Amino acid sequence: GPRGAKELFDFLQRLEPKLDNCRALCKASRQLKKLIDHHIERLQAVLHCTVDVSHPVPYAEKLVFLRELWSIVYHLAEWSWKGYVVALGPKVETDWHNKRFVLPSDFDAFKFLTYVRTYVAFAQQKASGVEEQMQQRDESEVWMIDAHNKDWAKSIDIPDLPQPSPDEEEGLEPAERR
């Protein structure tokens, strides 16, 4: 009857702002997803491999992480992707044959970025033969998300870079050389 219709109308009016909020959140979420996909495409284009970031963290956090990761990768475009993935350290699962690396669901993205940046700084200094500078290095050069991570980068055992095979250096498969 009329009373039921009025109650329904009142209920819908109370619900409308919440629905608008949901629509706005959905739209923002879709835009973030597009940005994330864009960053993944750029990373894959430079690294020539599949990047899987399906771990369950909020889109906003994932985007910050991917932006930072892109800024690192962008400066390392001349590295072989294997060298880069080794720089990612123990926090990634790698499938060399299919050129794929997967970030696990339980990792701390910002500690991971600190690890990569520390590795990169170390590898670049080692490559240029300026190992003495590592002892004198200013700690502020290592990017940190907060003070809690300060000691984390110092305690990392950084592996040596893999030496690319002659085939990799020239970018040719053995079959293509003939």
TrEMBL record:
Residues 166-178 have a biased composition (Acidic residues). Residues 154-178 are annotated as: Disordered. It comes from the Eukaryota. This is Uncharacterized protein. It comes from Eutreptiella gymnastica.
